[in-house]
Amino acid sequence: MPWRGNVLNNQQKYIELFQTSQCSWCRKFYTNEPFLCPYKTLQSSCPTFERLIEIPGWYSRENEIEKYKQRIIDMMQHVEEKEIMARCRVKNCGALNPNPQKPTCWKWEKHYLTCPEHPDLILRYNIKEDFWKCPLVSHPKKYHEIHEKIEPTPTDIPCPKCSKKQGKICLYYDTESLLLKCNECGRVFTYVKGKLKAVKYKK
User: Fold this and answer.
1) 122 CB contacts (<8 Å, ≥6 apart)?
2) Which parts of the chain register pLDDT below 70?
């Protein structure tokens, strides 16, 4: 039955693409009774994001994705059907940005979601055919990956350790680990229940 194979392939695409989303790294997504996500739909650049901290041998994102697989597929289908699926066009990123409220990718905080010819419009990603298209009907051009080097993203968040002794030294946002890092002391931080906390992290 070919249609069954197509369904399974589409579901696998959904899972793979979901893993590039901000939601896939949020601990609130993997909750039930109650579901702690305040939006109940996939988001990007979410102001309530709380990073999931994996504990080897006990708690992992991979296991949580498998556990909530049907929820992921249902939400991905909703995003695709509503044509609100945006995806970063930077090579080696390709992060999913569903329901984008701003034209910046949730990872880079730079304008890699918008149409190059209509910068006020966010491109829509076609998951089945793997291309980006402007929502403007009179602009049928399709886009693929762009090749740009991404520099570390500075923030205005002061390092809790260094700033006490040396004045304001701001953290950098690391797009690989999704954590905040200090170039001065090398410490790594993330937000836990709204408060900046130091964490142990190894690549």
Assistant:
1) 86, 100, 103, 113, 114, 115, 135
2) 1-8, 145-152, 175-177, 201-203
